[in-house]
Amino acid sequence: DKLREYSKSQTIREIDSFPNRANILDRKLNPLAINVSTYSIFAMPKVISNKKDLQKLAKALNAEDDKKYQKKIGTRKRFTWLERQIELSKAQVDQIKELKGIYLEKSVKRYYPNQSLSSQVLGSVGIDNKGQSGVEFTFDKELRGEPTKIKYVRDAKGRAVKVQREGDPLNNPEIVLSIDKDIQGFSEKVLKETIEKYKAIGGGIGVMDVESGEILAMANYPDYDPNLIKKEDVSNMKIPFVSDPFEPGSVFKVFTVASALENKKASKMTSYYCEKGSYYVDGHQINEAESK
Which of 121, 156, 163, 286 has the fewest CB atoms found within 10 Å of its own CB? Predict the structure, then answer.
């Protein structure tokens, strides 16, 4: 049994193949996060016989440095990624297919058609198709769907000689948010204009349906474009509108009064003596904010 398991570990590989990530839509079924077809390019340095093929690749991809991919490979002898999830035209695909030792792998990339709209709420997806923040992270399991198992037997050179698929890939259902794209867009526009006018550090807006409690918009600024994430965007990825603590202050007076009225502990005509703005509780004096 031990030898059999050892042999199996050397010759049999098992990987998970996920279906296309589910779309995210707003309440009116407008797309907020979708998938687009892309290509990843990799090289097998041992197979490349002509270094000029790497320069041809750079030219086909309009790279500024024609030695970009020679530098990426360097002294490597094994599998090397040259580009990940880039969009190519049919002409570019045809050119690359003619290059020896350079291969194309078709893949799917997450795309946000509205750029920065609701970026913190939606979050982002990594190159491994895993959600990193926001709805993409919270509902990652639902969005990725159930994988199918692919087993294959390898020969001595690691090539797949027999492939077996377990289960059929299913299209996972789309996730529909309560967000209204139009209200979200207007909220973000007003928020940005107000912050710039008063030179504020940042801010947030929330719009709620008072009948159902559904969130129609949740905007924060500064924001970012999840299609083009940069290092400086990391601090803008959280949702300070719901994650950052702050002192609610007099807002809670509304809840106190509402509770008193609802439970008939007070009426609209009830008056209270407020101790002239100073009150002792368990040996501690509590004053009005403006009292001296």
Answer: 156
The pTM (predicted TM-score) of the whole model is 0.68
Question: Is 66:58 a contact under the CB 8 Å cutoff?
Answer: yes
124 is known as an active-site residue: no
What SS3 state is found at 291?
A: coil
pLDDT per residue as tens, the chain (292 positions): 888 877 776 766 666 556 688 999 999 999 999 988 888 888 888 777 777 888 888 888 888 887 888 888 877 777 888 888 888 888 988 888 888 888 888 878 899 999 999 999 999 998 778 899 999 999 998 898 776 666 666 666 555 455 555 555 556 789 999 999 999 999 999 999 999 999 999 999 999 999 999 999 999 999 999 998 888 888 888 888 788 887 778 888 899 999 999 999 999 999 988 888 888 899 999 888 776 5
